[in-house]
Amino acid sequence: MSSGCGDVLSLNDLQIAKKHQIFEAEVITGKQGGVAGGADIDYATNQVTGQTQKTLPAVLRDAGFSPASFNFTTGGTLGVNDADKAVLWPVEDGGDGNYYAWRGSLPKVIPAASTPLTTGGISDSAWVAFGDITFRAEADKKFKYSVKLSDFTTLQQLADAAVDSILIDRDYNFSNNETVNFGGKTLTIDCKAKFIGDGNLVFTQLGKGSIVAAPFMES
After folding, report:
1. What does the pLDDT look like over 133-144, one tens digit per residue?
2. Closest C-alpha to 187, from 205, 172, 171
């Protein structure tokens, strides 16, 4: 509804917005609910869209890094053996929500209420945004494809998480007459790897207008 004062948000609008915020917080923090006391999670699911995304801490670990136990707001110290630690610059405190790795000498003291800019600057020999190290390629995939097979064990798990596009980025070994139900979703399935097996791999309930690009089967 609306009034002379402009649009009025309904309770449902606010609840939807909150779910989006929780999803974003879970992706950044790797914590259930996006809160410090939440359980560690490797994947976050948007309760509005159904989109599943790997959390940034999980991506960090895959690249050989791990989140520091502190951030630029709380402050802390990177020890001499902490070259593989990445420090979060929190969005809620004016940051960009990215993780930063220190490329200078260690130990490195990060005062509370600081930023990468005030504690050495951003350069190849100081703070380097994790996105500039390895996450950019991962992020490009996330923007182009809603999900990719390398993040899942089975094709059915991939189909359940799919939103609009799928990347088959690793070879998949299937069993004869293995059936994958896409639930009526209209999807673009981009095959950059092979389906390997003897017999049939059956796709069902692919929505009208779906595209399976360059499928390759190998026995």
Report:
1. 445 444 455 455
2. 205
Q: Residue 218's CB: how many other CB atoms inside 10 A?
A: 10
DSSP 24-64: HHHHHH-BGGGSTTSPB-SEEE-TTT--EEE-HHHHHHHTT
**Fold (CATH) for 56-135:** Seminal Fluid Protein  PDC-109 (Domain B) (2.10.10)
Quickly state the pLDDT bin for 9 (edges 50, 70, 90): low
Boundaries of every domain in the chain: 2-53, 56-135, 145-218
Q: Which residues are within 8 A (CB) of 2 and not within 5 positions of it... i.e. 6 or more apart?
A: 8
CA distance 117 to 89: 11
**193, 170 in Cβ contact below 8 A?**
yes
Helix, strand or coil, per DSSP, at residue 204 = strand
Q: Closest by alpha carbon to 194, among 162, 163, 169?
A: 169
Residues 166-207: tens digit of each pLDDT: 989 899 999 999 999 999 988 899 998 999 999 999 999 999
Question: pTM of the full predicted structure?
Answer: 0.50
Nearest one of 110, 59, 109 to 89, comparing CA atoms = 110
117: which 2 tokens? 């800019």
d(CA 49, CA 37): 25
